[in-house]
Amino acid sequence: MSGSFFRLIFRNAWRHRLRSGLTVLGMVVAILAFGLLGTVVDAWYAGAEGAAANRLITRSSISLVFPLPLTYKDKIRAVDGVRDLSWANWFGGIYKEPKNFFAQFAVDGESYFRLYPEFVVPEAQMRDFLRDRKGCIVGRKLADTYGFKVGDTLTLKGTIYAGNWDFVVRGIYDGAKKGTDQSQMFLHWAYLNEVVKAKMPGRANNVGVFIAEVTGADQVAAVSRAIDAEFVNSRAETLTETEKAFQLGFVAMTEAIVVAIRIVSYLVIFIIMAVMANTMAMTARERTAEYATLKALGFSPGFVAAMICGESLMLAGAGGLIGIGLTFPVATAFAAKMGTLFPVFNVSEATVLLQAGCALTVGVVAALLPMRRVARLAIVDGLRAVA
């Protein structure tokens, strides 16, 4: 019986092939768009999701624009619970054209990569980087995008630090896990500070942020308060927060965009739900006599309603499966076109589950009204409607 039931549903679903094909196509486009927009939102939060629970970021309490004195490092290191410490400066150079944007940080090489084990650099390349004051390390995605190879000279036009800066690519790092940002560039803070000291002495011996590794995630709050307490009423007071909170601060600046993308993604699903509901309503009206005949032959209202629901789910499911399948290659192509704008652009399991859930919801909701109408349909009224 079940085999015959599913065959009946399949034949009914494709009785009007053009209508069914267009409905499935609309479903494919909606589910694909929903998946891509969801992946864009995930990419926005990728930095926060990849943050370590035991890393703290200390910056100026006023703004990131204001630097902190390098001398703060000794007091931060002395705070109980701090296991390791490093620091970094945003460099902000332009590679050839302003559109070629990627993150560049001047770091204390040895300690920075010790704090970030997710950046995996071959040992020999790391040694070369540490020996060369003009050396730099770039991410695998950055190297693939611009064709950087170990030994290449990379020239950046300074915006914060004026002039042309030449760096030699001494290493290419890979991510220890899938979600690691592989589109950054790291150069020596000591070299940057040396040049700044010669040209702009007033800006020397300053850093953008300090990165502290705490002995345990349960000590994060206490250590944060202790660090900030060290610099209360100083000329440069600090704000210490978890790495995740620090990253979310950047996301908050564009929160309106993220909210708009989420709204659009669900609006797309709502529109296809309306289209699907119209398709099922048309189908039910056309087959009123058939449903009445089935009920006259002894089939229950539940059986007839199940036919409509099954047909709706078949169309929605077909579109959903194709849309989910297309999401992966389309996302890969989209990420390639975007270059380093989205450092991490992976379709997550959560996005796929949401796509499947939306397809299922559309299939069920679109069939509700036709199911209710047919279940309550009187046999005489159904036959009379045709006549």
Write the layout of secondary structure elements.
Blueprint: H1 2-13, H2 17-44, H3 46-49, E1 55-60, E2 68-69, H4 72-78, E3 82-90, E4 93-94, E5 103-107, H5 109-115, E6 119-120, H6 123-131, E7 135-139, H7 140-146, E8 153-158, E9 163-175, E10 184-188, H8 189-199, E11 206-207, E12 209-214, H9 220-230, E13 238-242, H10 243-253, H11 255-286, H12 288-296, H13 301-338, H14 349-375, H15 379-386
Parallel strand pairs: 5-10, 7-9
Antiparallel strand pairs: 1-12, 1-13, 2-11, 3-5, 3-12, 4-8, 6-9, 7-10, 8-9
Helix pairs in contact: 1-13, 2-11, 2-13, 2-14, 11-14, 12-15, 13-14
Can you summarize this structure?
With 387 residues, this protein is α+β, with helices and mostly antiparallel strands. It has helices spanning 2-13, 17-44, 46-49, 72-78, 109-115, 123-131, 140-146, 189-199, 220-230, 243-253, 255-286, 288-296, 301-338, 349-375, 379-386, and strands spanning 55-60, 68-69, 82-90, 93-94, 103-107, 119-120, 135-139, 153-158, 163-175, 184-188, 206-207, 209-214, 238-242.
